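Lab notebook: predicted structure, single chain.

Context: the supervisor wants predicted structures on file for every construct in the current expression panel, including those that have not yet been purified. This is the next one on the list. No modifications to the sequence; it matches the entry in the shared construct table.
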Amino acid sequence: MSITILGTSHIAAESIQKIESTFRKVNPDIICLELDKGRLAALLKGESRVSWRMIFYVGTLGFLFALLARFVQKRLGNIVGVMPGSDMKKGFELAMQHKKKVILIDQPVQITLRKMTKALSREIWRFLWDMVRSPFVKELQFRVNFNLRKVPSEKEIRPILKFFEKRYPKTYYALVEGRNRIMAKALRKIKEKHPNEKILVVVGEGHRRRIEQLLKNAEFV
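Prediction complete. Output recorded below exactly as produced.
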């Protein structure tokens, strides 16, 4: 059994190329995607709207965050000419085309947003205060010089993740680290259930390294 974890960007054309080339190289039996059933269904239908009904499930903050995230992704996607989530969609399409098993390893987005709402409600004042003073405090200033058409390197992503982990630890855990652990646990179970099959995992580059660390940690259960 072998497992290959590929880090992607959800709006980078390079992600599509990397998924195709890695698929050919690995020829996996199973493809694992950083998706849940709801997000996969929305991707396949080409849906991008955030319904106001989400407020009842994720709260006002969660709804506003989802609305903002969708707006930003769509705006950036329009700039580079790639629909957000095209990397995950390509992974699914390759699996279907070559009759490979697909396993979705992320938790439902509604759960993520509910957890994020609870966490952000405890850190919202720090977040707002940081926004007010960021023009004057060097610690709160960092520049992002990504080429949107390429997958950012770990070196580019790491400072941003570290910043948010330090400043907003609860929100960071809800959006990033908690999901890293959920996906790593899912992969552990998949490895145990399919010990002789090759597995290709497609996740955002911001998750890749941490998931690899968790899988190597014998104490992580």
